[in-house]
Amino acid sequence: MIALRPDNNGSRYHDFTLDVRLRRPEILPGRALSTPSFFIDIDGVLYGGSAPVSKGPGVLAYLRSRGFPFLLVTNTSRMSASDIQEKLADLGYQVNTDEILPVSLAAVEYLTHKFDAARCFVIGDDSLARLLEKHGHTVSRKEESADAVVIGQSLWADFGEIDIARRLALQGAEVIALHRDATWPDGDVIRVGLGPIVAAIESVIDGTVTVIGKPQRAFFDAALSRAGFARADTVMIGDSIASDIDGAINADLRSLLVRTGNSAEEPVPAGCDGALNSIADLPKWCDAEFPD
């Protein structure tokens, strides 16, 4: 079991302010890797909505053929690893559940490490509640004594839930957000993420919100430990500058931005190692950087 812990600076999410400039899609001089390992985001990178990214399934097969290990890391909080595996299989991707680290599982491990069996007030859909219960935590949708308020993605959240979360926090419950992404891609639609909900709760409580997923360094540290990857040889591939790229930079990882999700028109941030039009371009990049 890999447990995430709040960082030394407290658990509030910090925005990264970076200068931006265009960069060729290649690892910079002095940053050469030996055998690369990859963290790969899922939504917006491997698929968009209900459709796979063109030629995406073949990319994972290519990585296996080259002996380049990967772990799929995602802030998606509405699906378990098994749910994600099933969806990916329907889209033509062949992955094992141990090659998937969803933020919901990281949150469960955090709660287990800190509380053993936590009493949780949950803002989020039923899949998150079921996962918490499966791992021995108690879930409530009512205002009653709680160790933690757990905030996951849902298409609907109301002020009543935020009101209850505030009172529970004032009574000592830890407020835990699976992430605080402002938006997330759902096919051709960009939907509102957890960020606004977390901001609303932060504005009415005395403490801070513990954020579990990307871009938190603790999430990347846990992923490195789980996968057994060397930090210096790991490349994060994602479509979100705020969650994937800034998070990787802060965690001292390499990074590649893909243009198929949240950041299709954004310039490449300083510190990012390059950009790909889509995940389908990764084999070409690998062949150039790591010829047989």
Give the secondary structure arrangement, pairings included.
Blueprint: E1 37-40, E2 47-48, E3 51-52, H1 56-66, E4 70-74, H2 81-90, E5 100-102, H3 103-115, E6 119-123, H4 126-134, E7 138-140, E8 148-151, H5 159-170, E9 174-177, E10 183-186, E11 189-192, H6 195-202, E12 210-211, H7 217-227, E13 234-238, H8 241-250, E14 254-258, E15 275-276, H9 282-289
Parallel strand pairs: 1-4, 1-13, 4-5, 6-7, 6-8, 8-9, 9-12, 13-14, 14-15
Antiparallel strand pairs: 2-3, 10-11
Q: Looking across the biggest beta sheet, what order are the strands in? A: 5-4-1-13-14-15
Shape: elongated
Structural class: alpha/beta
What is the subunit arrangement here?
single chain
Count of helical stretches: 9
Please supply descriptive tags for the structure shown above.
elongated, 6-stranded parallel beta sheet, 5-stranded parallel beta sheet, alpha/beta
Question: Would you mind describing this structure in some detail?
Answer:
There is one protein chain. Strand 10 (183-186) and strand 11 (189-192) form a beta hairpin. The chain is an alpha/beta fold and 292 residues long. The protein is elongated, with a radius of gyration of 19 Å. It has 2 domains: 37-75 and 215-289, HAD superfamily/HAD-like (Rossmann fold, 3-Layer(aba) Sandwich); 116-211, Rossmann fold (3-Layer(aba) Sandwich), CATH 3.40.50. The protein starts with 36 loop residues before the first strand and ends with a helix. It has helices spanning 56-66, 81-90, 103-115, 126-134, 159-170, 195-202, 217-227, 241-250, 282-289; strands at 37-40, 47-48, 51-52, 70-74, 100-102, 119-123, 138-140, 148-151, 174-177, 183-186, 189-192, 210-211, 234-238, 254-258, 275-276. The chain has 9 helices and 15 strands. The longest helix is centred in the middle third of the chain and has 13 residues, at 103-115. It is 32% helix and 18% strand. The protein has a 6-stranded parallel β-sheet, with helices on both faces. It has a 5-stranded parallel β-sheet with strand order 7-6-8-9-12, sandwiched between helices.
